[in-house]
Amino acid sequence: MDEFFETAAAEGSDEEEEADDIDEETGEVIRKSRKSKARDGDLGDSSEEEEDDDEEEARRIREGFIVDDPEEDEEGRERRRETWKRRREEKEVEDEHLDEEDLELIGVTQPDDDRVQAQQSKFKRLKRGHREERPASEARGVEDIFSDDDEGADGAAAGRGRAFDYQGDDLGDFIEEDEFPDEERGGVDEDMGIRAPKRAGYAEIQNLKDSGLGEVALEDMRHAFGDGDEFGWALAAEAENNEETLDPDKPLELKDVFEPSQLIEKMLTEEDNIIRMTDVPERFQLARKPYKDLTQLSKEQMEARNAEEAAWIATYMYPHKRNLGSSLREPFEQAIEKVLHFMNVEDFEPPFIFQNRKDYLIHSEQIPNSPDPNNPNAPKYTIRAEKLLSQDDLWTIVEHDLKFRTFDEKRDAIHKSLERLKDVLPDFNDAVFDDLIPLAAQIDDLQDVQDYLNFQYSQQLREHNVEQAEVNGTQKRARGTRSVWDKVRAGPAYHLVRAFGIAADAIAKNAERGGNRTYTEDSDKRPDDLADTLVQEPEFKTGEDVLTAGKALFVEEMVMSPRIRRFLRKVFYEQLVFDVHRTDKGLKQIDEDHPYYEFKYLRSQEIKNIFDQPELFLRMLKAEGEGLVEVNVRLPREKTVKSECYRAIESDSFSEVVDAWNALRRECVDVAFAKLHKIIARGVKDTIKNECENRIGADCRKAYNEKLDQAAYRPTGMVLGTIPRVLALSNGAGNRGDAVCWAYMEENGRVQETGKFVELRPGNPEKFIEDGKDIAAFVELVERRKPDVVAVSGWSVETRNLYKDMKTIIEARQLMGAPYEDQDEDRERQDPLDVVIVNDEVARLYQTSKRAEAEFPIMPPLTRYCIALARYMQDPLKEYASLGRDIVSISFESNQQLIPDEKLLKYLETSMVDMVNLVGVDINEAVADAYTGNLLQYVCGLGQRKAAQMIKTINLNGGEVVSRGDLVGDVDRQIRQAVSPTVWTNCASFVFVDYNDVEADGPEADPLDNTRIHPEDYDLARKIAADALEMDEEDVKGEVDENGMSAVVRRLIKEEQQDRVNDLVLEEYAQQLDSQMKQRKRATLETIRAELQNAYEELRHNFAHLSSDQVFTQLTGETRESLQEGMIVPVSVNRTFGDHIEVKLDCGIIGTVAETEYPEDVYRDQREARSVWTLHQTVRGKLKFLNRKGFEAELTFRDVELRKPFKRHLLDHDLEEWDDELEARDKKEARKAVDPASGRAQRVIKHPLFRPFNGAQAVEFLGPLARGDCVIRPSSKGPDHLAVTWKVHEGVFQHIDVLELDKENEFSVGRTLRIGGGGAGKGWTYSDLDELIVLHVRAMARKVEEMMGDERFQAGSRQQTEQWLTTYTEANPRRSMYAFCLNPKYPGYFSLCFKAGQNAPLANWLVKVIPNAFELKGNKYPDMRALKNGFKVVFQNMGPGAGAGVSVVRR
Fold first, then answer.
1. Same domain assignment for residues 830 and 921
2. Acidic residues composition bias: which ranges (predicted)?
3. What does the alpha-carbon distance between residue 849 and residue 886 come to, in Å, rounded to a whole number?
4. What is the number of other CB atoms lying within 10 angstroms of the CB of residue 200?
5. Do 1113 and 1121 contact (CB within 8 A), yes or no?
6. pLDDT per residue over 563-586, tens digit each?
7. What is the CATH number of the domain that holds 1133?
8. Which of 36-40, 828-832, 1110-1114 has the lowest mean pLDDT?
9. Among 18-22, 1047-1051, 1094-1098, 1154-1158, which stretch is predicted with the lowest mean pLDDT?
10. CB-based contacts of 961: which residues, under 8 Å, 6+ apart?
């Protein structure tokens, strides 16, 4: 079998293979001795150990769950009670003693003989299984062949159909097609089934007679497990009960038909129905679901709660409101309190508050004016208004409200626990709770109190719970084992704790220096002497045991003290800094090109610096999670803090005894401080992480808001909000031969026409190149459809060429846009048709989505892409809203992947809610058009469930809404309620009814329903309209009686007198409303005036055109960070000229290399470019200049430039913020690193995949990476060799030996790279490393993916595969079967296992993976189908007995 391996520079050579250990120096194989897998004592009978436990468990069951037989004699019951009582007493006595774990916790050791005995009984309740331990690689038995237990993630692949052969046992049954028609596939799979696996469980006892067990063994088994019918009476009773309770007339429910997961997905569960019916905004219900309902609080309780919560929230928010002076602190808190009232009492969402309660978010005051004698009628005061809360602040208040609910409920839970303690301990009085609960300002403070409560009073709380259970008659719970600390408190060691002379709470008070100092009381004995007097067997056999237990309890009391935690947490937040320490793993993996290098040696980062760069801290934590660095919290003045704690605990007296006690106290402080450091540091990191995530989320929200805050594209001369007619074109990836697809969309959003152009390039008369034949068709389309704009987009640089071609054609053929009136020149004008490159981030997601397939099933994806572009031009808001949860796939901020998707979705949803409510939704359009209906869920008060319910009800009512009032129903007109009252109040002003569509429906149609004016303010709007028309009350009454409530507004609009509302002085209206009705409506009046003049005016900004940088990123995929001048990039040679080369970057940009930038030897020898480089050859070049607007680049091939590595610009750090010393030491060690086998200095190659690893390090590095990833590394074979290690599969890595030829010097990479060899036509040759990686490693990785995705591939080992073949042929004696499996011993090879019938021997051949093919028996096959058919042909040609051989790789 020598043909399987090359003899020179072969893949998987001795040096590189990992099946056995390889001597890097000699290349010899070091064989490993096999170790026996069997171990003595693994299996044992545990029945004796389990006997007592089983009796105890049975007794508990009888006592707690099974009712005694009333006919049982009293003597038996009394005997059981006595037994239970005796065992309970024994258990309590046992609990009094400290077990080994307790002693280890407090640091008390045991003699060896006691420890051994304890270890033997420690795991008494762990039942040993009677199944043998079998390694994962061992073949499964017949009964396990269909089990999913051992398949893991590969179970799906292993379980796919492997059907072939219907003929018989002759060898010709291998030759057949591997593809089956769909209609036959089911039958084939059915024939393939060996036997349906039975449900997991115990085999029937009756069937064990055939198992070979003897009568004695069977009898023992029956005694142990019974005959299997012990619970038959219970099953019979259950069946009888089911028959009695079965109601044939019971209506069928959804849960009886659908799976729970389907009901959850479709929002049809009972919980979803409750959300639909509850008269609270849906978003509020979902957010408040984990919390208690506040509606049960009285009005006074709610007011007090809102006041406390407002002060709590203001403490967090006011420091961020830098524009507010100190005089506005109180108004700011009052505004928050009012907002909380709106949210928690009236259930108003932020959009409603911002739109209809805006006056409460503004602080206004009257500033007196100086008298002006020349103008006696001048205003006596000036009103100065200050905006206190923005719309973003309202959402922030929602978040803080949820946090306060958590805080408040936590506090209530502590109060309830204290009440229970007072029931148990009538004289209970602990000043810690009285002092610290009122001072608690965050959840951490309350958690400290809770921890202290559980630590100090756990036994009392447990006893109270047991007593309450007994009193209430509920199930009794066994008395829990006391904690180790309770046991120490009950023992003599607690006297030592009290002898420390000061409590933990007093230590914190002394350290805080608040109030009078508590002095430490001195003992008259040394600590060791006192401990000797407290010895008590068996727990504390020596004074050292007593001393250890006492110190441990005293340390724990300090750790659990909430006042000490409060003191240290304050110190930490004021003083802490973050240090980053690279781990050994990070030292190897984080090089200067690694994105984590910017913080590899970072030191002394303060919190304010962290908040300025939140993404930096999150990336630090991500690197810590990957094991590359450690992010440590450090106190720069830790010694000072410890000294204060020492002074707080030490005694001021002088004596040898006092010195001994003070030394012990300092020791305890050190231990407690270390524990508290870990606890507080962990909390600090979590808190700062959450704040950093919030800041990035806020940045994403801001960026999303900018994307949403753009109206439809406005054609020249049209008013903002006009919907354009759009012709969208795209050439997609822009590959040669790709057609240009297009779609035309009318202003109503309907796709009227689609198609494609093949030849749309304009000609060049100077070069005698004619215009493309499709240009005429394009011109005819434009002239016939008359679009307002041509939208162009794609995902390649060729899109820019399409854009330029469109501009050229339109200019040459004089294609014009829609005519418009030029107000300046007072004439009609036409401008050339505009061409726009459109943002395609939504279109890319839409083109292959299920929604696109449902809407346009017969259209190709690129045409759907064009449709999405046209929709984006007409309304970006609707396009983004249609994405749903897929919105997280769009990039808003470069670091958004650092925060969880759920948190990001929450921020993005609030932005969408704000913008949808700013724009409004035409309710009738939303009912008729699902595309518009997507917006309805974001309307204030609604959500997915309530929006769907609204649309459903409206359709039941006839499918049209005439007025906003119809949404709450009308019994007289038989109109069903679509939304409940509170929800209607929230959403009424944000859903509008187009008056032009319903005007003919009678007086029910109201023009005010077509405005942003809320129905609660309709009377105010009608009053303003009447005053604008100068109508008195009698005129108004007559108009209303004749034409309905809004007759005056209709008249104002009909007579086009809307501008007259500008003559009204709204300040007077506001004063009257405030004084007479206690309503603040000044801002609302301004809204009414604006809406009466221009109903639902477009308030969004103009359509946002892409900047040059945005176009560059969209078409190339490169940002300013990913592609910079100075980078070394691979380029492909496009064309060669006399004085320069034209190259193409991977991103599609065309670059030039001037003759002077050729390599020094080429330029010096004046060699022609075509003799050095070939067409499409991949070479490395350094980027000298990049023109992002023109998509042009200039590069250099000079060796001296290529040797200079690209260095990213790192942040400027102060001297103390970067560990220069450690960095220099690491670099020095890296330079000194030598190959341990050869003694030569390791090579350094400037390539992104190069690592200075050996084989083992390469395997470790690639372990967590994806299949197909690789590293380039030095080879131990010498300076003219390289090694490439790539990941074949989990735990399987192939090492490839690369021979370098035509090397310029010892350290340079050879100009020719060869893999394999040994004869003519053997091996592969490449010109550089990039070409080798792409054409060799990546090509083999694709073939591995193809093999492992094939239906014949088995995910298990070879032994498991052969076991499966054996089982199959036993079940199907006249059939043959084959399968592929991975060969981990020889990476890069697969085993082809086959069995030609039941009686044929098992055999396997090796299949070698080579670039773009598989090799079997010296034959190469391009794909799996060819390989399988080739195998059958080879097998048949080899004749009988061919399968008896087994292929073995010769090393």
1. yes
2. 12-27, 43-56, 66-75, 92-104, 167-182
3. 10
4. 7
5. no
6. 999 999 999 998 899 999 999 888
7. 2.40.50.140
8. 36-40
9. 18-22
10. 923, 924, 927, 954, 967, 993, 998
Side-chain-facing half-sphere of 1198: CA atoms under 13 Å: 16
Residue in the block written with tokens 């039975």? 198
What pLDDT was estimated at residue 1396?
86
Residue the block writes with tokens 């064990």: 208
Question: Which two structure tokens, joined as six digits, stand for 915?
Answer: 């913008």
Q: C-alpha angle with apex 141: 137 to 143, nearest 5 degrees?
A: 135
Residues 799 and 939 in one domain: yes
DSSP string, 386-437: EE---HHHHHHHHHHHHHHHHHHHHHHHHHHHHHHHHHH-TT---HHHHHHT
**Residues 11 and 71 grouped into a single domain:** no
DSSP secondary structure, 1355-1396, as one string: SS-HHHHHHHHHHHHHHSTT--EEEEEE-TTSTTEEEEEEES
Six-digit token string for 1201 = 């430039």
CA dist 108 and 488 (Å) reads 12
Q: Looking at this protein, which amino acid is placed at residue 1365? A: L
Q: In what order do the strands lie in the sheet with 726-730?
A: 751-757, 740-745, 726-730, 789-792, 834-837
Residue 13 has pLDDT above 50, yes or no: no
For 909, residues 6+ apart whose C-beta sits below 8 A from its C-beta are: 938
Specify the pLDDT at position 459.
Answer: 83
Question: At which of 414, 443, 474 does a domain end?
Answer: 474
Q: Judge if 879 and 805 occupy the same domain.
A: yes
For residue 162, what are the contacts with CB-CB under 8 A and spacing of at least 6? Answer: 192, 1351, 1352, 1377, 1379
The pLDDT of residue 42: 39
Which structural domain, as residue segments, surrounds residue 810?
Answer: 719-962
User: Which region among 109-118, 408-417, 576-585, 783-792 has the lowest average model confidence (pLDDT)?
Assistant: 109-118
β-strands 1178-1187, 1150-1154 pairing: unpaired
By CB atoms closer than 10 A (0-12, 13-18, 19+), residue 137 is exposed
Query: What token pair was written down for 1439?
Result: 């004749």
Residue 1380 has pLDDT above 90, yes or no: yes
For residue 1335, give the DSSP letter.
Answer: I
Question: Could you give the CA distance from residue 652 to residue 660 in angstroms, rounded to a whole number?
Answer: 13
Q: Are 1063 and 1093 in contact (CB under 8 A)?
A: no
The letter for the amino acid at 902 is E
Bridge partners, 1405 (sequence order)? 1392
Mean pLDDT, range 1079-1096, rounded to an integer: 86
CA atoms within 13 A on the CB side of 171: 15
- CB neighbours of residue 11 within 10 Å: 27
Tell me the CA distances in angstroms from 1220 to 600, 1214, 1225, one per residue in order: 11, 11, 8
Query: What's the total number of domains in the chain?
Result: 7
Position 1355 in a domain: yes
What's the rounded Cα separation, in Å, for the pair 1338 and 1051? Answer: 75
- Chain segment 1283-1341, per-residue pLDDT in tens: 999 999 988 999 999 988 887 776 678 888 988 865 444 688 888 898 899 899 999 99
With CA atoms as reference, report the closest residue to 650 among 547, 554, 520, 551: 520
| Residue 678: its H or E element | helix 656-708
Cβ-proximal residues to 96 (8 Å cutoff; 6+ apart), any chain: 482, 487, 490
Mean pLDDT of the chain: 80
Dump the DSSP string for 1019-1085: HHHHHHHHHHTT--HHHHHHHHHHH-TTHHHHHHHHTT-GGGGGGS-HHHHHHHHHHHH----HHHH
Asked if the peptide bond before residue 538 counts as cis, ω within 30 degrees of 0, the response is yes
Residue with tokens 């010393």: 1221
Residues 906, 758, single domain; the answer is yes
1346, 35 in Cβ contact below 8 A? no
Nearest to 650 by CA among 639, 636, 664: 664
Boundary of a domain, candidates 1345, 1360, 1376: 1345
